[in-house]
Structure to design on (581 residues):
């Protein structure tokens, strides 16, 4: 049987930079890694802190890109078939920040189940089964109220929600009390009994010795040895000693890296057949000792996890992202009321500005046929969509980085472009509510006449504007993905567009050189087209110039946004900086 994971000539290093952007240090994380992981076995990935264990697991789970070498999971190559690899893998990271702390445990799990393509019925049944297994009765409580052991259980449940074939466990018992450690070991043994392929990264040798039948010892990015305990003992010239002694001997010096298959062949010729038979049968004895018919539901297939992606799956993922953002937003109850209040204050401010200075601006309003307050009310409402397009994606990426949840999103098989678009949808929905407040206030409180509106023209302008500025927002998010802070695209757009784009006053108020500058920004054409279609009722042919320019911007920006975000994501994966901020 071919190995379920094949790793060949894998190398990874990380570069440090000083304040001025110059390279200061290159740290080798992995060097010449060659491994074949057999299906249905439990491997202990052993090594001191900084040995490269977490880096190796994150490369296998597609979160970090290697410098060179290949990784294949069940024949699917890394960076070519990432979505298929992600559907086969469940990752338990040593990171508590990978959940949304203001949501309940069940809300978190339902969200991630949606990103794995499970529908409501499937996710509900799966969560119930896993809660029964892990004896979880606190799913309705908010995640921030959980103890360390409770959070770790939830991490196991999330990793198993889509019934993966492979489990990558990164220090799953770190910082747990004795009782919790014993409980977690019991669950790992149940997973072994159910035929999961497990790689357990740990520097606690007693845990690895109790749970694993094969071991990989890694130190300073190099493999010192791999195989059974007997094979490692033979390699370290200390046969018959305990695992701790063998480990210490192997990590005294870093052995030259060799093919894993060659290592096993060399060691097999030296070890006695009785020793090898005993070690290789260890996992079978573990399975016999922990056989439990009550856990047979682990063997049930969730067909959604093995089917190809469909449009329905993508919609389910988008719905999960919108629902998550809605739940997070409504958990800050005062914030929504403050936003509504802010909108009201803004309207009153411009109303009084119009009363005071409006007569001086009236000559510039002739093109639109309204007074200054009517003009600015519509432009401010419309600018909400523009601002949402520019800022929501970078804000969400930044927020996910700071919460530590970006990696847990990207380790799911959801398409990256579905994730990034889904991130911004709630903000657009919220912008619609804000626009309704502007329009209703204008209609009923300030008696503004919207009777001339050309709905079709307005919708066309809105769609073209949302596409253009969403693309600019994704480009802006690309800077955040790589640089964390410092977003020149967002700064330029937010700073200049409000000034020269005709948001707070018509463009023809400004001197000619600023009017020429305004013509370089799509917001100028979007605001003008929307004002004319709402107040003048212009059909499309009357605003064809503005719509054509917005269309050109859209056609140019869509592929640019797609390329820039993919480049930024791959850069962050190469840097290993997805959750840095």
């Amino acid at each position: 049987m071919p190995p379920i994971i094949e790793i060949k000539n894998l190398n990874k290093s990380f570069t440090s930079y000083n304040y001025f952007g110059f390279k200061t240090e290159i740290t080798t994380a992995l060097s010449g890694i060659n491994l074949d992981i057999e299906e249905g076995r439990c491997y202990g990935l052993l090594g001191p802190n900084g040995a490269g264990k977490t880096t190796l697991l994150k490369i296998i789970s597609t979160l970090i890109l290697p410098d060179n070498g290949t990784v294949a999971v069940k024949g699917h190559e890394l960076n070519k078939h990432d979505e298929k690899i992600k559907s086969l893998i469940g990752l338990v990271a040593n990171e508590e920040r990978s959940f949304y702390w203001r949501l309940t445990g069940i809300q978190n799990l339902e969200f991630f189940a949606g990103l794995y393509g499970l529908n409501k019925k499937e996710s509900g049944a799966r969560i119930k089964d896993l809660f029964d297994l892990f004896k979880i009765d606190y799913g309705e409580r908010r995640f921030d109220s959980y103890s360390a052991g409770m959070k770790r259980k939830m991490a196991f449940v999330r990793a198993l929600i889509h019934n993966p074939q492979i489990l990558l466990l990164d220090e799953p018992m770190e910082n747990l009390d004795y009782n919790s450690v014993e409980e977690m070991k019991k669950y790992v043994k149940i997973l072994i009994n159910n035929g999961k392929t497990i790689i357990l990264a740990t520097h606690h040798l007693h845990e690895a010795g109790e749970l694993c039948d094969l071991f990989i010892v890694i130190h300073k990015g190099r493999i010192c040895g791999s195989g059974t305990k007997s094979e490692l003992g033979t390699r370290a010239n200390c046969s018959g000693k305990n695992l701790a002694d063998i480990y210490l001997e192997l990590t005294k010096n870093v052995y030259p890296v060799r093919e894993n298959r060659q290592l096993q062949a060399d060691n097999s010729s030296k070890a006695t057949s009785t020793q090898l038979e005993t070690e290789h049968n260890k996992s079978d004895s573990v399975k016999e000792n922990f056989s439990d018919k009550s856990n047979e539901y682990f063997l049930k297939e969730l067909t959604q996890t093995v089917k190809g992606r469909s449009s329905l799956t993508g919609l389910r993922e988008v719905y999960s992202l919108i629902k998550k953002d809605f739940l997070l937003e409504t958990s800050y109850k005062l914030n929504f009321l403050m936003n509504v209040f802010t909108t009201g204050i803004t309207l009153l401010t411009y109303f009084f500005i119009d009363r005071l200075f409006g007569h001086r601006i009236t000559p510039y309003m002739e093109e639109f046929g309204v007074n200054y307050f009517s003009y600015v009310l519509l432009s401010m409402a419309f600018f909400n969509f523009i601002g949402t397009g520019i800022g929501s994606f970078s804000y969400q990426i930044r927020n996910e980085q700071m919460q530590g949840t970006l990696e847990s999103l990207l380790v799911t098989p959801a398409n990256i472009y579905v994730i990034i678009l889904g991130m911004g949808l709630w903000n657009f929905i919220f912008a619609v509510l804000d626009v309704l407040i502007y329009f209703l206030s204008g209609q009923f409180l300030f008696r503004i006449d919207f009777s001339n509106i050309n709905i079709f023209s307005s919708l066309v302008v809105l769609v073209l504007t949302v596409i253009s500025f969403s693309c600019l927002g994704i480009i802006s998010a690309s800077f955040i993905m790589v640089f964390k802070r410092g977003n020149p695209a967002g700064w330029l757009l937010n700073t200049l567009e409000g000034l020269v784009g005709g948001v707070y006053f018509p463009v023809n108020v400004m001197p000619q050189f600023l009017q020429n500058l305004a013509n370089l920004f799509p917001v100028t054409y979007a605001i003008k087209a929307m004002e004319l279609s709402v107040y003048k009722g212009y059909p499309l042919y009357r605003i064809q110039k503005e719509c054509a320019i917005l269309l050109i911007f859209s056609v140019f920006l869509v592929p640019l946004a797609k390329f820039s975000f993919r480049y930024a994501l791959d850069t962050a994966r190469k840097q290993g900086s997805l959750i840095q901020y």
Q: What stands out?
A: Confidence is low (pLDDT under 50) at residues 255-308. The radius of gyration is 29 Å. The CA atoms of residues 128 and 477 lie 37 Å apart. The beta strands are 5-17, 23-37, 42-46, 68-73, 76-77, 89-92, 166-170, 197-202, 214-219, 222-227.
